[in-house]
């Protein structure tokens, strides 16, 4: 979570020494930072999508498991009744 917070913050403020750097160097740095942030946002979106997909799968598996447990209980009851009739 700390990394998410850090990456979501606005860029650092320019220090006096940075202002003296050549304009092309600052532009290159800004472009690189912008590209890194864009990649980070795309990665976040992809992770959120995958997490949502896994949550849906987990929910479906939990429902299936509950159904199987009910079915198992019903089968046990049927087995007991068969043994009582014998």
Explained architecture:
- It is found in: Endomembrane system.
- Keywords: Membrane, Phosphoprotein, Repeat.
- Its main location: membrane.
- Residues 1-27 are annotated as: Disordered.
- By secondary structure, this protein is mainly α.
- It has one domain (21-85).
- 86% of the residues lie in helices and 0% in strands.
- The protein is built from 3 helices and no strands.
- The chain has helices spanning 2-8, 16-19, 23-85.
- The radius of gyration is 29 Å and the shape is rod-shaped.
- The N and C termini lie far apart (63 Å).
- 0% of the residues are buried.
- The mean pLDDT is 86.
Give the gist of this structure.
Its main location: membrane. With 86 residues, the chain is mostly helical.
> Structural class given helices, strands, pairing?
mainly alpha
Order of helices and strands: HHH
Cα Rg: 29 Å
- Give the overall shape, derived from the CA principal axes: rod-shaped
Distance between the termini: 63 Å
Q: What is the overall pLDDT average?
A: 86
Largest sheet: none
Strand content is: under 5%
Question: Strand tally, please?
Answer: 0
Low confidence ranges: none
What is the number of helices?
A: 3
Fraction in helix: over 70%
Overall structural domain count: 1
């Amino acid at each position: 979570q700390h990394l998410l917070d850090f990456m979501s913050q606005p860029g650092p403020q320019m220090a006096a020494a940075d202002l003296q750097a050549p304009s092309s160097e600052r532009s290159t740095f800004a472009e690189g930072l912008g590209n890194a942030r864009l990649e980070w946002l795309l990665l976040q979106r992809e992770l959120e999508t995958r997490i949502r997909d896994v949550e849906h799968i987990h929910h479906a598996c939990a429902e299936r498991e509950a159904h199987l447990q009910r079915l198992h209980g019903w089968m046990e009851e049927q087995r007991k009744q068969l043994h009582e009739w014998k």
